[in-house]
Amino acid sequence: MENSRRKFLKLSGLAGAAGLLPLGNILAESKINNQTSSDDCVLIPTETAGPFPLDLTANTSFFRQDIRESKDGVQLNLKLRIIGKDNCAPMSNVRVNIWHCDKDGLYSGYSQTNNAGQAGLTYLRGYQMTDANGEVDFTTIFPGWYQGRICHIHFQVYISSSYAAISQLTFDLETKNAIYTSNSNLYTKGADPLTYSTDNIFSDGYSYQLATLTQNSSGAYDSFLEVTVQGTGTVGIGHQEKENSKHFVLGQNFPNPFSNNTTIPVKLINGGDLKIEIYNLMGKKVHTIEKNGLSSGSYEILINLNEIGLSSANYLYQIELKVGDNIYRQGKLMTSAK
């Protein structure tokens, strides 16, 4: 399983290049007073990635929806919807990373004076790819707070290997502190003493970074934020890497969303050996199709979930094309609804 997970994470846009982005390629927009908008869409403000931005692309354990591991805390179900500024439409097949501190204000992956003993740990970090509605879902715990910072969650939206948006979100003060006081056995530091105006990140504006926060019937909390980034949102069409496009074009499956049957379109520029792999959202490979010795041309690969024993859910499909001694990969997310 670990070998298949590593191969999966090497697909274009999920590994390597995004972790090496030069600062000039990161979206840099000012806060509320100077934000750029198109129609009703306002670019998410850029914030610092620190102090603990562990590179998720370098570790195969981070493609996951549930990022809690063994951490205690009130369950938080976080949904982010990514839309493009140019037309305010959802952006599918973009990678979204999140990370935040635990209930005591500690971050995994680093060890220093104010974060001792956390080196090598991986809790409360993860990434997903947006579905046909431009959405990702994470299961986590409600974060704590630490000196100098109000309660917050970091997130990064990687549009391609040359462009990413980095920001943070926060919550309503009253609801947030009610969680702390109602669960004082877990959140032993008590209520968060900071307000938006006294936080060094949100003091110059927070309106577009304020996520909803409501308690559901099970006692967990649901949170939602719509995030606008540079680009054009087009439901069902992903973002192609230039190197791959010299050898193949991977289309979005159609229809998408679908019930049981869908088709994956692939155009081969020069031909080669083609492998189609399907993964669930925990990075486990659940089905493989191989078609060797294909000539250049357009192909349609039919997927029937019943025939391959899969239930309705989101799946990532990856194609791997071998041309001579070179291998090229790309993946997209497909959405099956009952």
Describe the structure.
The chain has 338 residues and is mainly beta. It has 2 domains: 2-229, Aromatic compound dioxygenase (Protocatechuate 3,4-Dioxygenase, subunit A, Sandwich); 242-335, Immunoglobulin-like. 7% of the residues lie in helices and 34% in strands. The protein has a 4-stranded mixed beta sheet with strand order 6-3-10-9, with no helix packed on it. A 4-stranded antiparallel beta sheet has the order 5-4-7-8, with no helix packed on it. Strand 1 and strand 2 (41-42) form a beta hairpin. The longest helix is centred in the middle third of the chain and has 10 residues, at 173-182. The protein is elongated and about 65 Å long. The model is unreliable at 4-38 (pLDDT under 50).
Work out the radius of gyration: 21 Å
Helix share, percent: under 10%
Helix- and strand-based class? mainly beta
Second-tier CATH architecture of the largest domain: Sandwich
> What is the N-to-C order of secondary-structure elements (H for helix, E for strand)?
HEEEEEEEEHEEHEEEEEEE
Q: Which sequence of strands runs across the widest sheet?
A: 6-3-10-9
What does the main sheet amount to?
4 strands, mixed
CATH hierarchy class name of the largest domain: Mainly Beta
By DSSP, the count of extended strands is: 17
- Fourth-tier CATH superfamily name of the largest domain: Aromatic compound dioxygenase
CATH topology of the largest domain: Protocatechuate 3,4-Dioxygenase, subunit A
Count of domains: 2
What is the 3D shape?
elongated
Count of alpha and pi helical runs: 3
- Beta fraction: 25-35%
Report mean pLDDT, rounded to a whole number: 84
State the low-pLDDT regions, or none: 4-38
- The first-to-last residue Cα distance is 28 Å
